[in-house]
Automatic annotation (TrEMBL):
InterPro entries, per database record: MFS_2, MFS_trans_sf
Protein name: Na+/melibiose symporter-like transporter
Transmembrane segments: 12-31, 43-64, 76-95, 101-125, 145-162, 168-189, 210-232, 244-264, 271-289, 295-315, 336-363, 375-396
UniProt similarity note: Belongs to the sodium:galactoside symporter (TC 2.A.2) family.
Annotated GO CC locations: plasma membrane
């Protein structure tokens, strides 16, 4: 019989994912365009300011992880990070624009630092509160399901609410985030006096072996997101159907999480992830055959690849948790979880930045300033991610990665 207290532990851990995703999607998708057009900064200024803020964000991951491992993730940390997010977000939305550029950059940097202050200890928490492979799977699957639910909420709310209501939704989501952050504080990791440096972590062959496929897979996921609007507009000629495509994709991802959870329980996390990679690559490859008027087929492909999304998120995170637990035991109980997940976070952000650069450099090389041809867009949108995912599948066959799955028991 399932213990209801244990079930509540998994739900409690996952809860911040809903407001984080619901707040994060508008910030990354809509805020730059709104600041450039509605707030009057212009595209170049917004691009420069966001680049500076993003670079600061990337560089903050490792120091944040080291600080958390040394001092512990107490409620004061969660509340301080929330305060940075809330004050910056409310100021950006409610105060009149334009601001002086240093003030705008400072507001964005504080917002991103607050985000890091919540996400790094939150991602690392299963290292300290999971006690078996099943626990790791449950915590990470619950988190990804809640993140997907929050993403869907962020897509649906603008469609059903009047624009004047959206700033009030921001306040409500910040309040929900505060509540869920307070719940996390009661299960924060204890402080330990044993600390090891990043050099020891990076010297571990298992960590290096897992880092490359993780980065490559994040790059494969980020490239389609970078050029999705261009693909919808120039290849399918169906940009107006973008909301349906996105909702179909993320809803399928949410519904697919239980399948990958039960599959991983039967055949293991690693093989389940590899199956997810192959199925995603196979289904997505058919998008290269699409053209004008094929939006229905594209929605079907989005649903199929969305079902594989759960394998792409929860399963590698469970392996990362297992590796962190193994390394901690080997180092005499040293606190390393936050630094390891800060490293994974940094690699993810670097992959997102590289995806933009690689995609647009390729598209720019295929045109003289006009819109790139459909074949070039399809190549970067479909062929590159499929090839990268197949590479990840091969990388995951290495013996040092196979050893990770059973090491955190």
């Amino acid at each position: 019989m399932r213990n209801p207290f244990r079930s509540w532990q998994f739900i409690r851990y996952a809860l911040p994912g809903l407001p984080l995703a619901a707040l994060g999607l508008p910030f990354y998708l809509y805020a730059p365009l709104w600041l450039a057009e509605q707030a009057g900064y212009g595209y170049s200024i917004v691009g420069l300011v966001f680049f500076a803020a993003r670079m600061t964000d990337v560089l903050s991951d490792l120091p944040a992880g080291a600080w958390i491992d040394r001092h512990g993730s107490h409620r004061a940390l969660w509340l301080g990070a929330w305060l940075l997010i809330a004050s910056s977000a409310l100021a950006l939305v409610y105060l009149p624009h334009p601001w002086p550029l240093p003030l705008l950059a400072g507001g964005l940097i504080l917002l991103m630092l607050g985000w890091t202050g919540i996400t790094v200890p939150w991602l690392a928490l299963p290292v300290n509160i999971s006690f078996s492979a099943l626990d790791r799977l449950r915590y990470n699957s619950s988190r990804e399901a809640m993140l997907l639910l929050g993403t869907l909420l962020a897509m649906v709310l603008p469609a059903i609410l009047a624009p004047a209501m959206l700033p009030l939704v921001l306040v409500l989501l910040l309040a929900v985030l505060l509540l869920t952050v307070c719940l996390q504080g009661s299960q924060a990791a204890p402080v330990t006096t044993r600390i090891i440096g990043f050099r020891v972590l990076l010297a571990d062959q298992r960590l290096r072996s897992l880092a490359l496929p993780w980065f490559t897979n994040m790059l494969a996921n980020a490239i389609p997101g970078t050029v999705l609007i261009l693909f919808m507009r120039e290849v399918l000629h169906a940009e107006s159907e973008l909301p349906i495509v996105l909702i179909s994709y993320f809803l399928a991802g949410l519904l697919g999480v239980p399948f990958w959870y039960f599959l991983a329980r039967r055949i293991g996390t690693l093989w389940s992830w590899r199956i997810g990679l192959c199925s995603s690559a196979l289904l997505f490859s058919f998008a290269a055959l699409l053209g004008e008027g094929d939006v229905a087929w594209f929605i079907a492909i989005s649903i199929g690849t969305g079902l594989a999304l759960g394998a792409d998120q929860a399963l590698p995170s469970a392996m990362q948790t297992a590796l962190a637990q193994t390394l901690s035991k080997e180092q005499g109980g040293a606190a390393i979880g936050a630094r390891m997940f800060a490293l994974w976070s940094m690699l993810s952000k670097a992959a997102m930045g590289l995806a933009v650069g690689v995609s647009y450099l390729w598209l720019g090389s295929q045109t003289d300033g006009a819109v790139p041809p459909a074949w070039a867009i399809s190549a970067v949108y479909v062929v590159a991610p499929v090839a990268l995912k197949l590479m990840v599948f091969l990388m995951l066959g290495r013996r040092s990665i196979v050893a990770i799955e059973g090491g955190g028991q």
